[in-house]
Amino acid sequence: MSGALLGRIGAATLTLFVVAAVFAPVLAPYDPTLRTAQPFESPSLAHPLGANDVGQDILSELIFASRLSLTVGIVTACLATVLGVTVGVVSGYLRGPVDGVLMRGVDVILSLPFLPLMIVLTAFLGQNTTNLILVIGLLIWARPARLLRSQVLSVRESGHVQAARAMGATHGYIMVRHILPRITPLVAAQFVRTANVSIMLEASLAFLGLSDPFQKSWGAILFYANARSAFLADAWLWWVLPPGLCIAAVVVSFAFLGYALEERVDPRLRSTRPEGETLKDAETPAPVGGGALQ
């Protein structure tokens, strides 16, 4: 399956989730904060995914929870991408002592025990969405920064950048007008990959009970399902499985979209066989002389 097709599938799936999040008040059959069914009620026409331990409609919870999960993923990706682009471009273009200091900072971030540090910081700063976004964003920007720096090191030696430097252009002008446009496709790919990681991390922290207890997300739904012993009864089929599938679907969709973007950035990831050429055509040897004698 080609990267372009995977990208279309990922984009279509993400669009569905974004539409559901935006129009949650319209699409959700019930208010997810109200008791509208019997506790642990099985799925029915009135409640397609049943109810949780207090009688709240799980389908409505899932639809509203997509808002927080997607918001954390996208906002965190924006924060991490801005930090990564700034450090990567400045470090790769200026080189010298600035590059040394910034890259040592990147090395420190990458060498830290990621998951324990994230759990400790989230618990210390407090369980709210803003702190969750800050902790995740400040811990995942380093890898994009290193990847972008390597691309900037190549772009800074190109002819148009050298010409701009020779004509007296300032460093800021060159980085904004000549460096950033050349690395934009790679920035987009890193943004998608970072959003993917952010959604998984938010779900992990929420499952551990470290998210805002007053906000619903897919990870928070799993936390309450585990805390209320849904795994010990048939309730896991409609209380645990749906949010898990939602997380998996969004993560896979971001992965498909990221792969398609990376394929456009790195030609080595593309198939070397021309479009429309079959395997049989590719294996058929060309005639000697190339048809010149005809």
Tell me what the structure shows.
The chain has helices at residues 3-22, 24-27, 58-94, 96-111, 114-125, 129-140, 142-155, 159-166, 171-207, 218-227, 236-239, 241-265, 279-283. The chain has one domain (3-25, 51-272): MetI-like fold, CATH 1.10.3720.10. It has 13 helices and no strands. The protein is mainly α.
In short:
With 294 residues, this protein is mainly alpha-helical. Helix content is 69%, strand content 0%.
Strand proportion: under 5%
| Rg | 24 Å
Could you give the distance between the termini? 39 Å
H/E series, N to C?
Answer: HHHHHHHHHHHHH
Mean pLDDT comes to 85
**Could you give me the name of the CATH homologous superfamily?**
MetI-like
Sequence stretches where pLDDT stays below 50 over 5 or more residues = 271-294
Query: What's the shape?
Result: elongated
Tally of individual helices:
13
Number of strands: 0
What is the CATH T-level topology? MetI-like fold
Work out the count of structural domains. 1
CATH class: Mainly Alpha
| Helix/strand/pairing category | mainly alpha
Assembly level = single chain
Summary tags:
294 residues; MetI-like fold; 13 helices; 69% helix
Topology:
Elements: H1 3-22, H2 24-27, H3 58-94, H4 96-111, H5 114-125, H6 129-140, H7 142-155, H8 159-166, H9 171-207, H10 218-227, H11 236-239, H12 241-265, H13 279-283
Helix pairs in contact: 1-3, 1-12, 3-4, 3-6, 3-7, 3-9, 3-10, 4-7, 5-6, 6-9, 7-9, 8-9, 9-10, 9-12, 10-12
